[in-house]
Every structure is written in structure tokens, then in C-alpha cells.
Amino acid sequence: MLYFETEKEDGSAGHGNCPVNISADAEIFLYAGYGLYAGAYKAGAGRGKPGVNHGVGILVSPCAIINAFQIAYTRETIQGLLLAFAAAIAIHVVYLGLIGLLGRLWKFSAIERASVMYSNAGNMIIPVVLSVLGPEWVLYSSAFISVQITLQWTHARGMISHEKGVDLKKLFTNVNIISILVGLALFLLGVRLPTVMTDTLKTVGGLMAPLGMFVMGMLMAGNSLKKSFSNPQIYKIALLRLCLCPLMMLGLIRLTEAYKLLPDAATVLYISFLACTTPPSVTTTQLAVLYHEDAGYSSAINIVSTILCLATIPLMTMLYWHVVG
């Protein structure tokens, strides 16, 4: 039974006469509503997709994103968000040139080129930002995520499927894109959600870090590590993704001195830099399955890179702060 907290005559806390905390009850019902939503999207186990993995993607991540936009509309926040978007667009333009060069020089396949260009930022950047910087910084990760998702369902899809055209349905029904648009609209309009809703979003979104790492372990357990680590080509792809791509981002930041543009510019750009340090995107594997390409090879690249990133991300982080100061 839940009670309102009251104060006794002697000043000590005690339970009032009201037997129900309406706010807490509403929050519990919101959790049930989120579960209903997740069930409608077949996030439960035994429906063709890993339950926890899909649940993180369609429920936990959107909660973290929307909650991140529940901050005060200030000039500094807008400037930081614009800087994050500019950085995301700039580095993806550089990456487009890189994979074009790799395709010509080393005859990389579409899967290999997509694995180098597209990081697993959508699944990993939010947990890392939450654990390292805190929930108030997740807002700036949405810039990189939205730019990458847009390119994945346009450029990457066309590259892997060998089809022309843009799949707008896949793009605009992506839950991360939807949650970014909803959160951005609330932020720009100055709409603050009721406390009971923000508390629920914060609680569910806070699961992103532990569940994200849990899913990573599940993916590794479901693949043959011996087979994955026996292919030397995979190491080349992994090192390009985990080392060359972040170094290109760091070089761009240092060359333009963008980290000096705003008081918090170094931290905002660090979030974009972190997104560049993550392993290849799992969306590449999903596209490989969808268009009957070598999904097994794509998954092996992802697994090896995920294990190697445990060493490369801390090294890249130290290098970033050494260069940026």
C-alpha cells in the first residue's frame, strides 16, 4: 500500500490518511502502457527477434531520447545542438569520400564499406553518454543518430540492395527518428511533460546503459567467436572502423578548432567523437538479411569489432582529451 508522506506534530515524517499515492500509481500504469506498446511491436521473446535487444531499440532508447529533450530552451543549448548536427553532417561527408576510396583501392564489398562508414551509435552512444556524462548530455547524441539513420536508410540501403531510390517508409517509421522529432518538437515549443511522465521516461531510459551492455553480451554469445576471429579481413575492417574513422573525426575537430566555438563545445563534440569510436552498426547486418547479402560475415565483423572496442574506445578517449585539452 502506498501513502502520502505527511509531517507529524513533533516534526517527524509519517503516513497521512490518504492510502494511495496517485502519482506513483500513475507511474506504474505508464510502465504497463509501455509494456503494451512493446508487445504490440513484438518485442517479447519467441517472436522472431531477440526480446531484450528489440525492447531496448523500440522502448528504452526512445524514452532516453525524449527525456533528454526535456530541458530548458536556452541559447547555449540550441548552439550546442546545432554544433552537434554540423559535426555529424561534416564527418559523414568525409566518410562518404573514404568508403568511395576504399571501394576503388581495396575492392571492398558493400557490406565492408557500410561496416566501415556506419557505427553502432544508435545502440551504444546513449548508454555510454548516460554512464560517462549523464542524462543531460544525451540530447546532443540525437544529432549524430538522426544523421546516420537517414543515411543508412538511403545511402547504405541502396549500396547493399543495389537498388535505386529511397525507402522513406523505413526512414520515417524508425522509432529513434520519431522520438527525436517528438522530443525536438517538445523542446522547441517549450512543452514540459508532467512530472509523472518525466519520472517514468527517466526510469525506463536509465535502463539503456545496463541493458545495452547486456544485449552486447547476448550477441557475442550467439556467434562463433573462433570462426569470427579466424578471418584476417575482419581485422582490417575493424581497425578502420575503430581507429581510422575516429582519428578522421578528431583531425576534423582539431583542424577547424570547433572545440573552441562554445564553452561546452569540447564536450558536445566529444559525444559525436564517441559515436565514431563504436563498432559497425547492427543495421548493416539487418540490411544484409533483408536483401540476401552475407549477413553472417556482417555479424562476424560486428562481433570482432565489439570485442576490440573495449580497448580502442578508452584509448581514443584519452587521445581526444589530449588533443583537445
Give structural notes.
A hairpin with a 5-residue loop joins strand 1 and strand 2. The chain is mainly alpha-helical and 325 residues long. It folds into two domains: 28 residues, no CATH class; 219 residues, no CATH class. It is 74% helix and 2% strand. Strands 1-2 form a two-stranded antiparallel sheet. It is globular and about 50 Å long. The N terminus is likely disordered.
Task: Based on the model shown, name its key terms.
325 residues, mainly alpha, 2 domains, two-stranded antiparallel ribbon, 74% helix, disordered N terminus
Short description:
This protein folds into two domains: about 1-30, no CATH class; about 75-165 and about 180-190 and about 210-325, no CATH class. The chain is built from 15 helices and two strands. The protein has helices at about 20-40, 50-70, 75-105, 110-115, 120-130, 140-160, 170, 175-190, 195-205, 210-220, 225-230, 230-255, 265-275, 280-290, 295-325; strands spanning about 5, 15.
